[in-house]
Amino acid sequence: MTSDALLVKRAQRGDRNAVDALLRENYDIIRAVCHRIIINTSDAEDATQMALIAIVRALPSFDGRAKFSTWVYRIATNAALDELRRIKRRDIPNDDAQFENISVTDATHAVDAQMDVSAALAQVAEEFRVALVLRHIADLDYEEIAVILEVPVGTVRSRLSRGRAQLTALLGNQGESTHRQNNDIGGQP
Amino acid sequence: MSDDNELTPEIEAALRDIPAGDPALRDQHIAAALGELAPAATMKRRNLFAAAAAVLVLAGAGFAVSENSDGDAPAVAAPDTTITSLPKASGECQKSGGFWGDVGGIDYFTLRGVAFELVHRDDLVDLYFGSEPCTMLGTIGYYEAMQRRDNQEGLPSESTCTKDPLVQFTSDAGGQEYRLALLETSDGVSLFFEDRCNEPIGSITLPTSGD
Given A130, B67, B149, B198, which is the most exposed site by the fewest CB atoms within 10 A? Predict the structure, then answer.
C-alpha cells in the first residue's frame, strides 16, 4: 500500500491529522480548478470551501476504484459547477451577460497582465471551459475527464478541441481587447 | 491518449498561473472542513472506546488474577467461571470485519491459558480477549515507526528477537516491508521490529489484580 493510499485509509478512519494532510496536499489544485471554472475570485473561494467540506463528508464512501486525485477533482468540479448555478440564480439573467460581466470585472483586476487568460476563459462556453480546466490544470486524461463529466470520451475530445480553439482565438486578440477595456475603464469619469 | 491539438506553452502556463491564495484563508477553509469530521468520526470512535472501557471494568472484576512471580511472564491467568456471567458483546471479537470495516486479518494466540486475538488494521493492531465479551485491551500503531525506519531516523541498534513471539507478521504500511513480532513482556505484550528487539514500537498492559 502506498503512503498516499495509507493516508487516505487513515483519513477514512477519522484520523484528523490524516484528513488535514490530505486537504493541504490537494488544496492548491482544488482551488485552481474552482478559480478557473468560476473566474470570479470570491465565488471561487466559496466553491473551494464547499469542495473541501464535500470531500470530508464523502471520504468514508471513497472506494478506491478511481485514483484519489481524480475523485478529488470530481468533487471540486461539481462544487464549482454548483457555485456557477448558484451565481446564475442569484443575479445573472443569462449566460452571456454573466461572462461579459465577469470578463470586465476580471480585466479590471488584471490591468497589467499581458495575457489576461481569466478574462478570455470567462468567454469560453462553460462546458468547454470545464474540460479545459480538467485537462490543462488538473492534468487528467480524456478517460478520467469523461468519468468526471459523465460524458463519452469523444465528447471530451470535441469539447477540448472547441475550447482550445475558442481560448486561442480570444487570446489572439487579447492585447487589443485588454487595451480597449482598460482604456474604457480608465476613460470613465 | 495523446491530444489532437494542445494549447501553446504560453497559454498553458498562463492557465496554470493562478495567484497564490492567502494562507490564513486556506487554514480557515481547512479548519471549517475538519469541523465536518468531528461529529461523524471522532464521536463514533469515542463511543467505541467508552464501550470498550466499560466492558474492561467488568472483565477486570471477573478475571481471575494472579500476581506474577515468574518475572517476565505477564500477570494474566485463565478466567474463572464468573467470566461467563458477564454481558455478551454484540459481535464475535471483530470477526465480522471490524468497526471501520478495514480489518486486514486476525492472529490468535494463547497466553497463560487465556485466548487473545490480534486484529490487523492497516498500520494498527488491536488486541482483544479472544472470548466473549471480546474486550478490546489496546491498540498499537506502527506507521510512524516504519516511516522512521524508511527514513533511517532515530533507529535503535540492531538486536534480533530471541524470545518466541506470540505473533509474527509482515507489513509494508510505512512503504518498505518489515517483519514485526508481538512478544510477551512482564506486564503484557509489546510489538517490535524483529531485528530491533531492544526497543518496543508500542506496548499493551494486560489487566492485573490492581486494574
Answer: B67
- Averaged pLDDT for residues A141-158: 91
Q: Examine the domain organization and report whether A88 and A3 are in the same domain.
A: yes
Q: How many domains does chain A have?
A: 2
Does B10 contact A115 at a Cβ distance shorter than 8 Å?
yes
Q: Are residues A142 and A169 in the same domain?
A: yes
Question: Residue A50: which of A90, A89, A77 has the closest Cα?
Answer: A77
Residue A13 lies in domain? 1-94
Q: pLDDT band at residue A173, thresholds of 50, 70 and 90?
A: low
Q: How far is CA B166 from CA A136, B173, B179, B188, in A?
A: 54, 21, 13, 11
Q: Which residues contact A25 (CB under 8 A, 6 or more apart)?
A: none
Minimal Cβ distance to B102: which of A9, A27, A52: A9
Burial of B65 (0-12, 13-18, 19+ CB in 10 A): middle
Residues A24-53: tens digit of each pLDDT? 999 999 999 999 999 888 899 999 999 999
* Rounded CA separation B122/A1 (Å): 9
* Strand pairing class (B105-111; B114-121): antiparallel
Nearest to A6 among B29, B41, B122 (CB): B122
The HSE-up count of residue A114 (CA atoms within 13 Å, CB side) is 5
Query: pTM for this structure?
Result: 0.51
Higher model confidence: residue A66 or residue B68? A66
Q: Say if residue A107 is in the same domain as residue A188.
A: yes
Q: How far is CA A60 from the centre of its chain?
A: 24
CB-neighbour burial class of residue A188 (10 A; exposed 0-12, middle 13-18, buried 19+): exposed
Cell for A79? 462544487
Q: Which position has the grid cell 474552482?
A: A34
Helix (H, G, I), strand (E, B) or coil at A164: helix
Whether residue B39 is preceded by a cis peptide bond, meaning omega within 30 degrees of 0, is no
